[in-house]
Design brief:
The chain contains 4 helices and 11 strands; from the N terminus they run βββαββαβββαββαβ. By secondary structure, the chain is an alpha+beta fold. The strands form 2 sheets. It has a 9-stranded mixed beta sheet with strand order 9-2-3-8-7-6-4-5-11, covered by helices on one side. A two-stranded antiparallel sheet has the order 1-10.
């Protein structure tokens, strides 16, 4: 299995495309952000949780690997966030994207408009263990599952990529002033929604957040 070249501990973290630190100082030192993960035992609802911070150069490849690490997948959706052009948060579901190959092909062809868009959360579902893999709008890779074996296998695979667990987990979502953005040559919100429709996504929920 390919092992990733992690960020130099003596250099500042380079966030993935779609999110960036502001010029204002936050609650924590920016140098505390490292490419590491946290993994939590099952909570009172029996859900195991995992979160990984990944640098710009590694995010897409690690995300694709993370999808491959899942059991057979059963669903794929995208949350279009309300702070993108001040509209409602919309949940778009692709019921026909029910295998890993189709999802990976879509994300690869629309990388600039999906993975590199800071106004989206991307979710892949697996029925086994009610497992949910998320790339959130802060570009963290998250896993939630009720299946302990799915959880253990996933974490082991992430470790095999070269990532380490930490108790001191820092990321741009908490304690840092930051901005979300999309690339200038990526789709506008209206164009993005049209692209989803063209790929047979459908809106199944919309709400204020």
């Amino acid at each position: 299995m390919f092992s990733f070249s992690l960020s130099d501990p003596d250099k500042s973290f380079i966030p993935p495309i779609g999110i960036v630190k502001s010029v204002f100082e936050g609650e924590y030192d920016y140098d505390l952000i490292k490419e590491k993960f946290v993994a939590y035992n099952a909570d009172e609802n029996g859900v195991f949780e995992f979160e990984l911070v990944v640098e710009k150069k590694n995010l897409f490849s690690v995300l694709i690997n993370a999808i491959e690490f899942l059991p057979e997948v059963d669903g794929f959706c995208i949350y279009v966030k309300d702070f993108w052009e001040n509209e409602l948060t919309e949940l778009w579901m692709a019921r026909h994207f029910n295998n890993k190959s189709a999802i990976i092909a879509f994300l690869s062809s629309q990388k600039k408009n999906t993975v590199e868009n800071g106004y989206l959360s991307i979710v892949v579902y697996a029925l086994k263990g009610q497992t949910k893999l998320t790339l959130d709008d802060h570009k963290k890779i998250q896993l939630q599952t009720q299946d302990e074996e799915v959880f253990k296998d996933f974490v082991e695979n992430i470790i095999n990529l070269g990532y380490e667990q930490t108790k001191d987990f820092y990321n741009l979502e908490f304690g840092y002033h930051h901005f979300h953005y999309r690339l200038a040559d990526s789709l506008t919100r209206a164009e993005f929604k049209q692209m989803l429709e063209d790929n047979k996504f459908e809106v199944i929920d919309s709400r204020e957040e």
